[in-house]
Structure formats: structure tokens, C-alpha cells
């Protein structure tokens, strides 16, 4: 029986990389379904290859590693769903979108658990038979609170942690546990209006367009690689509150779009940017 | 013979403002074609009224001033074309767009002259039989250079000065000569990437959307009231140079759109924001 | 205690309409919060006035009717939530969006019931404690089936019936029971690709943009007044199935946007078009 | 000295196509700059390969033809500018955009001549020192008129003929002279509002979005492969005339975008769709 695999490859460019990969797959009777590659102006090579065939994928991977120059990173993914954990605070809209997609099997991921630093969203989450953990930050140091979070996360070993409006800053130490694995939705069209209350800032600046940004989380708040962005037009008629409402719609659709790309293994990270193949 | 007028009114809100204006116009047999108003959350009132009738507009204006509470600003505009002067450096694309619209009588303004701090664009401007002034900044202090610019501008008494990619910073003293009359196109989706080389910054940050902003110029560079903005999607495939090319298309269309609004007397300025009626 | 009201007025234009309305409201100590009006090129007048004050609204309405010329339609609305009923078939995405908004009190309407011609969506609806009625069309004539639907609808007396992917055509006789009250989401950027399987048609035509349309339902399928539309870019890489997935996201956000406008009493209908104030 | 080439390849998919091409280029010391390929769901293969090296491109082409299975179409393009001829009627806006881009060497093409069935645009074209031919259709049969057009076109042997608002229908016989070489801008978001006066149709239908479509011309008017489309939002406030003005801005930017893709050899045609790599 044939099964489908995704090969992700990145590293310094060399002559003949596509040639070598396609040769090895050809020799192993694997059929390439889709192949996308990109070479950055600085000479860094990225390739995503979907292929299909009835062979042990590890054998293919070993053959590729042998045939390719050193210094390239190779990752072989099956096309099964990712295991994820969501983190939330009190706002429901991104969570509700993800749960509805999950309920109808459209998310491309299994939501193993939801962690909230408030208990507000428990009833909604439990409608969907997903465990909800309330880990209050009150009375705890950041360090102690993150230890509690970590304990739960490690139990589930998620492939991705999605901050679906988790409104607390995570320490670099915490983030370091999940490199390139935490995804956040930022309530602004980055790099604009960094910090709190961006819709009030947008209103006061009189912008004619507002937006949202989904990005990986690294050590610098809001400065990780951008995965997806979108915008909507506004006018002077929108109050700061109207902009916040509209902004929420953008946030939830941008987060959805970003997760679709990530869960399909289409996103590479390079020098704090994403390459999406 | 009937002629068309535009009444612009702004000031602190009072009960009955629309009532008073419509009553006075009604009593003077003026026919309201279109009326738009807006009250800001802070209680500031804006109204733009297009009306038509065969009466001396000054009589209407006086009657309105008499009937309305103090502290309101009233401006009465005819619907004739505005006189404008363009300022440029070396980049042609916004200039070419405005000249083409002007050549076919679609700009809503008369371009009285173009001033460049380089001579590069003279041949193109002269194709359209518009005077071009080369006022080089080389060897001149900013003060002296701006004096030269001012001399030309004062000769033309433009109602608006359009910076169609004029790449030098204007001093607050210069700007003070043309309050709410200088319009700039900014090569970025403000408030992002302030400063030089925004497309390189956008590339390095890996944004998925780039944009441009047309705004009035006040004393703080790039911080005047925003008139229009637009954006386009980009991906990792676009180099910084590609983004610059695409950005130019956005800049020229955003500047065009902003000028259309300004020349139709649809733009009010309030607390560093625009209200567009 | 002050309460807020919305006056909707439409009819042939006359001199002094705004004047008369604002005078009457002024005389009754009602405070205008927001006033928007529009006169069509053919001379039809529309006005939406939000006002606030502590008086019996019927007294204001009578005073207005007395003061205004005949032939104008006046409607006075409170700002309470509308009662609505949803109709569905098997597709969940629009339904899930509306239920999530309702669950968090953001819909501007009370969902009194959901009617499905299949039973598929019952479990999801019941998570939200809303009655679900399964009215199968199987073995019934269209007439008989619509009688069953009507029985339920008349019990709830909904102010609007929302077809959230209800995939059966309604007869003109049925529609006539709910004039200007049935809202549909159409899986296409109207007027394109009328009929079944629009995403397959879009794929085969090779369009670069797909869209969706929310509209009122009148006797001609898909030809009622358009309330909202939106689009997204596609490329040759999207299959017909990909376009359908993307199209669903557009459909749900367009339907949401349209309902927001309708439930806020901002939509007038005139000559098969909408005027949105 | 290295020079850059573009290989376009399309045909039925076979195992190993990418492998074979990259091997041949590798063996001939050609360096792949960018490679994009696509396989349609129906199993048709498309590849565009930009490469660089100091060898006779014909030798590479022959080697590729020898190594590849039969039935594939191979085209080798240099990256020089295309020779084109524009055809116009009376409307200037698309023409003005293309001439401005050409004047500043940004079009990616040489405009060898402009042909008008009216003489209206001659003065504007001649500002740019481009020959203008007035070929009036008055008093001529379609056949005779097209013979006159053909005479001029054959003299210039253009690689592409751009209909920049040429408002007459071309016969299938005429079109057959330039297969996949005539590009038109359609004043509508196809497939909507086919026929005359689309903005009046759009106004009357009350659409909330209008658009334009650039496409290749085949025998069926407005039904050739779509290259690019774009849209803008409108409201009830726009008259049919306003929509026409806005529509022109969309038309000119969509035509520009389409030509950029075509002149860069990025557009394949397959089953009346385009594949853009």
C-alpha cells in the first residue's frame, strides 16, 4: 500500500541538489506528487517534496543523506495530524474558531488539551470533550507559574503550542523548551503598534487599515518569524472599540490560516523569516 | 443659473446643528444634494454639505454664521479645480501618474508647476507643457534651499503642495507656511518601518504584506494626519528590490486616491486624524 | 432614564426632509447620536437616525408623521436583539460561526431555533442548548415540506430567517411569507457562476479570485438584493476542492458581516439593491 | 561571460522529469537560479527553469530534447525585452500607464507601435516618440479593416499584441494569426456582466465589489485564459459613473500586472486556464 510523505530539506545551496533528491526518489520508485523549492538571495536552499510509494521511508532518508553534501538538514514527515495544546486567557474568539474546525475534523491537528490562566473558557472547551487545565498565575512567581504550565505541556508532548490569545508574556527560558514550536497571534499588523492596547493606538493614529499577525515565538516578544498577516479597511467612523471587534475577526482568520500552513509542514524558518513552500 | 457649493463645518457639537443648517439652506431655496456628518466620540462635530441654487453664496454663509452657535468653523467652497504645485526628486512613478491624469483632465486640480531638487524629471514634465523648476540643494544650507523653494511656491499661491516622492525633509519653519496644505506619500504602511529604506526593513522582517500611506505633513516627519493607505501581499519570494517595485505601484495609487479625496473637499483634520465625509 | 432608538425613513425626496426630522427630534428633546442619509440618483431618499432621550417613542413617531409629507415610510426600532431562526442542511461552518458568536453574546440576535432538512447538525446545535428541528424533505412534495417548515417558523415569529447553507430552493409562495426577512449566503461572487458546483466552475474557468455573496431572498433564486460580498485570491495551484475550502471561509465571514449590518438596522432595500447607512 | 536563460517545458507528466532536466543542466555546467514546476490534477506537467552559464543554449536544448521522453514541449527564452504593439480606441488610461512604464524602462517590453481605430490618442502617443497608426474602421467591412490592421502588425512581427482598451471585436480569423499572443483587459470581474456597459450592470445589480480581468484572446470573446484579476469595494454611494472611474484604475493596474507576468515568461496556457510559475 502506498503512503504519502513530505521531505523538508534546507541548508547552503549546492549545484545539483534537486537533481540528487529527484534521482534518489526515482531510484527508490517513489513518485513525486509536488515539489517546491526556493533559494534565498543569500544562497540558502529550501525544498519541500511530497512523494508517495510503498517503501520504508527511513531507507529513503538514509539514501538521501548519503547522496547529499553535508550541512543540509533533512526532515521526513508523514501526513498525519499534529498533536497540539492551546493556551488561552479569557478571550474566546480564536479558541472558538479552532474548536469548531477541530469538531468537524478540519484543523489538521488533534487538540490534546487547553490550558487557561483563567477558568473563564472551561465550559466552552468542555462542550467539545477536551481537557481544560486552569493554571492561575495569581500568587505565583512567573517562574513557578511556568513550571506548572510546563508540567502539563510535557505530559502531552505537543508538536505545537498555540497561544490562542494567551495574554501573558512567556519567559525566554520557557520558550526555549519549544523552539520553533510556539505560535502566537498578535493583535496588530506587525511591526506597528507594539505593546498594549494596539486598537486604541490605531484609533488615535487615525490609520485607515488595521491588521493582525501570526508568528512563531522567540525570545523577543512579538519579534519571531511572521507566518501570516491580514488587514481590513477602517475609517474615522470606527471607534477604538469597533476596531477591536473587527480586529478580532482578523486575528482569528489569520491564526487559522497560519496553522493550516504549519500543520501541512509548509513553513521553514530562516534568519527570523519564514519561507512557505 | 444654478451653481454647486460645498459647505464644510466643524466644531464642538451642539443640539440642533443639522437642523439649523438645513433650515437656513431651505429658507434660501438652496437644494441639498448630499449631506454627510460625523460626531466624534469626544463630541466634535463635522459636516459636509453639497448644495445647489442660484443665490450669492456669501449671503448664505452670513445667514449660517448668524444662526449657528459660536465656535464653529464654516468654510464655503466652490467645486472648481484646485491649483497645486508638485515637488519631486528623481523618482518618476507618482509624477507620471499625476501628469497622465492631469493631461486627460481627471485630476481635479491644475498642476501649475513642478519643482525638483534634481533636474532628472524635467524632460518628462515638459512633454506636458508644465513649467519645471530645478532648485538644487547642493551647496546650499537647508534654510537657503527652502527660501528658494518658497519663492517659487509663493509666486503660484498653490492651494496644495504635493510631495510626489520629494525625498528631502522639510523644516518645521517651511511647513508652517502651508498648514494642512502639504500632502506626502510615505513608502510604508505607517506606523511601520519609519525611516530610510523601508522595503529593505520589510524584507528583513519577513512581512507578508507591504503598504503605503498618504498623509498631511506637519512638524513631525511622517506623523501628520493619514488620508489613505493601501497594502499588497508579498511572500518570501520577493526580494527587497521586488518589494520596492511593488511598493511603488501602491504608493502611486494611494497618493492618487488621497488627492481625489482632498481635491473634492472631503477631508477634515482633527487631532492629527482625518475625518473623510 | 434615556433609551436609544433608531428611526428608518425612506421615500421620494423632498426639500427639507432632514430639516423636518431634526426639528421634530430637537423639539422633543431627543439627542441625535448619529444620522446618515442618502439620496439616490433617481431621487429616492433614505435616512437612518440614532437618537436618545426619555420620551415615549410613539409620540415622536406621530409627530414626525404629521410633520412630514405623505408617501414616506417611517420605521422606529429599539436597539434590542432580533429574534432569528436558522435553516441548515449538512454543512456546519456558517452555523458554527453563528453559534460561537451567539454563545459569547456577540451576534446581535437571539437564535430561537435551528431547522435542518437533515439531522446531521443536531449534536452540534444541542451543545449550545438551542432547539433543533429535523424536517426531512424525503417523501414529501415541496409544498408539504414547506408547510412543515412554516409551522415551526410561525411558532417562533422570527424577525429574520437565516439560510446558513440551507441547500434547497424555497418556493416563491414560501418566500412571500417573509418579505425582506430571509437572508442567504451564496457560494459565489455573484453574478458569477450561478447554479450548482460553483467552485468546480471557478476552477475550470481558471479564475484568479473567488468570492461569496450574502443577499436577501426574493422570488428569483440568487437574485435578491446583495448585502455583502468578499473575495480571496487563488492560483492554478488550488484544486476545485481547495477552492471550496477557501470559499467556505469567505462564506462564513461574509454572512457574519451581512448579519451584523442587518441586525443593526442599517440595511434598506430599494429596487433590488441595498443602501447601507 | 555568463548569460541567463529561461527554459519552459510542458507536457504529460512522467517519472523523473525534474531529475532529467536538472541532470542535463548540471552536466552542462549551467547553474539553476530558480526552478518552479507544477503538475495538474489531470497529470500535466509544467516547469519554468531560470539558469545561467556560458554555453550555447541550443546545445543545452538539444541535449534536453534527447534526454526527455517525447511529447513534451520545450521552449528556451533569453531574458531580453519582448517586442509588442498596442491597439487602442479612445480611452487613454491603460495606454498612459504602459507608456509611462515604457518611458522609464520598466515595462519589460519595447512598444514598437500603437494602432488606433480612432485618431484621438495620437498626440499623447507621439509625446513618447512612438509611431501611431490610425486605421479607421469607418466605411470598411470587418474583413477589410482587419486586413489593414494585419498589414501593420506583420510589419512589426510583435511577440505580443496588447489590446489596451481596443473596443472592437476581433474576428476568429484575425485572432488565429496570433495564437496565445493577444492580451486583452476586460472591464469586469469575469465571468460576470459579460457584454456592454458592465459598470451600469454592476450598479443596477447593486454589487459591493467590482473588478477587472486581463486575459488572452481566443475565438470566444472574453473567454480566453485569465492571467490576472483584481477587485475594489464599492457601496450604494457610487453611481454607475463612479464605478466606471474606479473600474478604470483597476483595469490599468490589472493589465500592468498581467503584462509583467507574460513578459517575464511566467505564463503557461493549458485547457483555457493559465499556470503561472
Automatic annotation (TrEMBL), chains A, B, C, D:
Pathway membership, UniProt = Purine metabolism; IMP biosynthesis via de novo pathway; formate from 10-formyl-5,6,7,8-tetrahydrofolate: step 1/1
**SUPFAM superfamilies for this protein:** ACT-like, Formyltransferase
All copies of domain Formyl transferase N-terminal, residue ranges: 84-259
* UniProt catalytic activity: (6R)-10-formyltetrahydrofolate + H2O = (6S)-5,6,7,8-tetrahydrofolate + formate + H(+)
> Where are the active-site residues found?
222
Could you list this entry's UniProt keywords, alphabetically sorted: Hydrolase, One-carbon metabolism, Purine biosynthesis
Enzyme Commission number(s) of this protein? 3.5.1.10
Ranges for the ACT domain? 5-67
What does the protein in this record do? Catalyzes the hydrolysis of 10-formyltetrahydrofolate (formyl-FH4) to formate and tetrahydrofolate (FH4).
Question: Which family does the record assign?
Answer: Belongs to the PurU family.
What protein am I looking at? Formyltetrahydrofolate deformylase
Origin species, per record, is Ravibacter arvi
What's the encoding gene here? Answer: purU
